[in-house]
Amino acid sequence: MGRIAPKIIDIKIKNMGYLIIYFLVGVIQDFLTTLNWRYVAKEKVLPAMLFSFLTTAVGMVVLYNIITQLDPNRSILAIIIYSLGITTGTFFAMKFKAGLKN
C-alpha cells in the first residue's frame, strides 16, 4: 500500500499542473483582450492590431489543446479553471494604466 500512495500523489500533482497552466493562460489572454479594447477605444491602431492577434492566437491554441489533448472529464474542469483565469485577467488589465495616456 505504501508504494501506491506516492504514485497517486504524483498523478494528482501532474494533473494540477495543467490546471495552473490553463489558469495562467486565461489571465494572460484576458489581460491582452482588455488592453486590446482600450487601444481600440483610444484609436491606437498598431497596438490594437497586435493585441487582437495575440488574443486570438492564445484563445485558439487553448481551444485546440482542450479539444484534442484532454479527456471529457478533465476538459470541463480545464474550461472552468481557464474561465477563472480570464476573470482574473480582466481585473489585472482594468488596474493596468501604462501606455494609455492621451
Summary, kept brief:
The protein contains 3 helices and no strands. The chain is mainly alpha-helical and 102 residues long.
Q: What proportion strand? A: under 5%
User: What count of helical segments does DSSP give?
Assistant: 3
Give the SSE string: HHH
Average pLDDT rating: 81
Measured on Cα atoms, how large is the radius of gyration?
17 Å
Q: What is the strand tally?
A: 0
Form type: elongated
Roughly what percent helix? over 70%
Structural category is mainly alpha
Question: Quaternary arrangement of the chains shown?
Answer: single chain
Supply the key terms.
single chain, 102 residues, mainly alpha
List the SSEs and their pairings.
Blueprint: H1 4-41, H2 45-69, H3 72-95
What do you see in this structure?
The protein has 102 residues and is mostly helical. It has a domain at 31-95. It contains three helices and no strands. It has helices at residues 4-41, 45-69, 72-95. Helix 1 (4-41) packs antiparallel against helix 2 and helix 1 crosses helix 3. It is elongated, with a radius of gyration of 17 Å. The chain starts with a helix and ends in a 7-residue tail after the last helix. The model has no long low-confidence stretch (mean pLDDT 81).
